[in-house]
Structures are given as structure tokens and as C-alpha cells.
Amino acid sequence: MRGAGDGMRIGERVAFYRGRRGISQRMLGDLVGRSEDWVSKIERGVRDIRRVDVVAELAKALRVELGDLLGQPVLMEDERQDDDVPAIRDALMTPSRLSRTLFRRSTSQRAISPDQGERLAEHAWLNYQQGRIGRVIAELPRLISAGQELEDAATPQNRQGWAVSARVHHLAATTLSKIGEGDLAWIAAERAMYAADQADHPLVLASAARAGTHALLASGRFDDAVELGNTAAEWMRPQLVNNDPAALSLLGMLRLRTAVAAARRRDRAASTELIRRAQRAAELLGHDGDHWQTQFGPTNVELHRISTALDLGDVDYVVRHGPDVTASNLPAERQVSHMIDVARALSLVARDDQATELLLGAEQLAPHLVRHNPIVREMVKAMYRRSAAARTSSSVPLSALAERCRAVR
Fold first, then answer.
1. How many CB atoms lie within 10 A of CB 69?
2. Residue 352 pLDDT level (bands cut at 50, 70, 90)
3. Which pLDDT score, from 0 to 100, does residue 180 have?
4. Which of 71, 126, 148, 165 is nearest to 382 (CA)?
5. Torsions phi, psi for 79 (to 5 deg)
6. What is the model's pLDDT at position 72?
């Protein structure tokens, strides 16, 4: 049930769904190319799963979603203990979006102008980049409804409303992916892509395609994310007139997101090549920019180099080089994502004190990005159990963090 504390490990969830499917450990091992002993160790917590792609393989074999093995999202409460994710669900799933013929609305119902909608969307994007996810969640229901109204009021001569709606739904998809709401993220991404098609603007469509890759990655659909990212990037290439900074930034970010997807499906050659292409775009751009809220530039390329190395299983590389990459010039969201990656690598080599210190620092920058991240929750859960057994010096702060992440009951 959404919002409930979840004390189960990934291995315990594997055992639960395997039992529900009525298959043996040997059968599951055969389905994912592993031994019966490997499955047994995963289920008993003797062995940790180091890579997301392995979790995705298990989910596919068990015929469940990736999120089912990573754990259900907990209540996304802000400082006032409000949880507005249900309101986002209501806004996305309103019957009026099913048919514009059945639910045709008068343009007189429009509450805001496209320019006002654009300003509101940009303000929400700024909150996202600064890690103020609680505020974004609170703003999204109203923004989504406004975007829908702008769609209804758009005309063939003035498509700005569609462009604003695409940006709003892109933000919704990206935010929902961050907090483990994969199914809702996919709905938002589909709406973003549809609105972008109607906007008939190449940069709007390229930006919306990023939302699609986020949602597909969150759902464990790595092959589909690679296909979408590569298709969008190739479509974008003719738009690079005079190395326009916005187009370069969007192309670069599409390359980076596709590199992550390739890494998670264990395609090292493709991931490396996509990072190289993104680096070339960053060199042409020449600085760390934020065109179309991409935060794209040389630094973000290095952050993704670390992230893809972790997804490919190069834990030692991340432990050695991750702390050397400085992201202090980028917004909090990027800094925190990098800190989580490095902390995860440190936890995988049992350097739990350092991992805990990094997570606590990330939590100070953006509490919600840490406490509502399914990967963080699993990491903290594993470290908490080790610390409880060994009574390490990090036990007290780690225990408190585990409670804040709802990793323990």
C-alpha cells in the first residue's frame, strides 16, 4: 500500500513474488542466467544486488514492474505534512483528457494566458533544480490543470499553449520519476510528448523526449529508453544551426540520458560512445549552461560518466574518481544525484561511514530528493542492518536517516 513503511529488502520481495508465481529458485535462476545458489543468497540477504539492470532482469522474469522490487513510494509529505501526489494523479487522470469532443470546453474558461503559464512553469522548474521537490509536488496539480486549459485554448495560429503544457508535463514526469511514481511518470511523459507534437516546435519536442527517457528508465524499460533517446537525438541533429546553445544543450542531454539507458542494459560500447558524443556537444557549448533547464555542460557530462560507470558495475572507478568531480556550480538537484551515486558506490564496498556522511550532506541540500528516493531507501536499509550487527560509529546518525527515509518500521 502506498505510504506504508517498507522494511522488506529487495531479496525478500524477490522471494515474495517468486512464491506468488509458483516458481522455484532454480527456475528463477535459469530465467535470469544465474544459479539457484545466487537466487538463494539474494533472497536471504547474504548477497546484495549491485546494479539496477539486474533488478530489472528479475522484475521481467517475475512479470512485475521494476518499482515492485524497489519498493512502493512512501507518502510525499512536505513541511506541513501535506501529500499532493494524489492531487497530481487526479489532475492527470481527469476524464476530460480522454476526449476533447466529449468534453469540449469554452475558451472563456481559460484562467491564465500562455505567457503567465510559461512563467509559472519556469518558477516550478527552478524549484525542482534547487531540490525543493515538496514545493514542486504542491504546485503541479494546479500547473497541470492550467496546461490542460491552455491546450484547449490553443489554435493552429497560436500553439504556445501546447508548448507550455509540454513543459509542465515534462516537469511532472521528471519529478514523479525521482520519487518512485513510475506509472504516473509515464502518463505525464506521454502527455508531454503529445503536447510537444501539437506545439510543432523542435526544441519543445526534444525537451519532452527527455521526459520520456526519464519515465522509461524509472520503469526499467531500458531498450525503449535507448530507442527513444537515439531517435530524438538523430531527429535533433538538423536543428543544430550555428551550434545554437539551446539545441546543443538538448542534444547533449538526450545523449546523456541515452547513455544511462545503454549502461543499464549492459551495453558498455554504446554508453561510452554516447558519453563521448555528449562531451563533444559540451565542448562546442563551452560552458556549464542551463538552457531549457538542462544544466548541460562539461560538468554534467562528468557526472554522467560517473553514473554510467556505476550502472556498468565499475564500483572501484566510482569510489576512486567520484569524489574528485566537483558539482558545486550546478543546482542542488544535480549535486544531490551525484552524491547519491558516490554514496551508493561506497556502500557497495562497505565504506558505510563515508556513504552515510555523503547522504547526510545530500539530505541537507535537498531533503525530499534523499528521503523519497527508492535507491537511497534500499542503500540505507542495507547499511542499517550492517551497522546494527556491527554497532559501528555511524549507527546513530544512520538509524535516524533510515527512519526519515522510511527504510525501517
1. 24
2. very high
3. 83
4. 71
5. -60, -25
6. 61
Residue reference for cell 506468488:
20
Distance between CA 357 and CA 352 in Å, rounded? 8
pLDDT in tens, 240-283: 777 899 999 999 999 999 999 999 999 999 999 999 999 999 99
Give the Å distances, CA to CA, from 407 to 30, 54, 253, 374. 31, 21, 32, 9
State the Cα–Cα distance between residues 42 and 38, nearest whole angstrom. 6
Rounded CA gap, 353 and 343, in Å?
Answer: 10
Residues 75/375, Cβ–Cβ less than 8 Å: no
Contact indicator for 150, 198 with CB cutoff of 8 Å: no
- Above 80 in pLDDT, residue 104? no
Are residues 406 and 114 in contact, defined by beta-carbon separation less than 8 angstroms? no
Tens-digit pLDDT profile for residues 198-235: 999 999 999 999 999 999 998 889 999 999 999 999 99
Residues 6 or more apart whose Cβ sits within 8 Å of residue 156 = none
C-alpha grid cell, residue 334: 544535480
pTM for the structure as a whole: 0.85
Q: Cβ contacts of residue 274 below 8 Å, gap of 6+?
A: 255, 256, 258, 259, 262
pLDDT of residue 270: 97
Q: Give CA–CA dist 98/186, Å, rounded.
A: 16
> What's the grid cell of residue 88?
497530481
Q: Is 168 exposed, middle or buried (0-12, 13-18, 19+ CB in 10 A)?
A: buried
Rounded CA-CA distance 360/348 in Å is 17
DSSP state of 73: P
pLDDT tens profile 108-120: 455 689 999 999 9
User: Do residues 354 and 320 make contact, with C-beta atoms less than 8 angstroms apart?
Assistant: no
Secondary structure (DSSP) of 217-268: HHTT-HHHHHHHHHHHHHHHGGG-GGG-HHHHHHHHHHHHHHHHHHHHTT-H
CA distance 82 to 79: 7
d(CA 389, CA 181): 32
Rounded CA separation 247/263 (Å): 24
Comparing C-alpha atoms, which of 167, 184, 162, 9 is closest to residue 84? 184
Average pLDDT over residues 329-344: 96
pLDDT digits (tens, 9 = 90+) for 37-83: 999 988 888 888 878 888 888 988 888 888 788 776 655 555 555 56
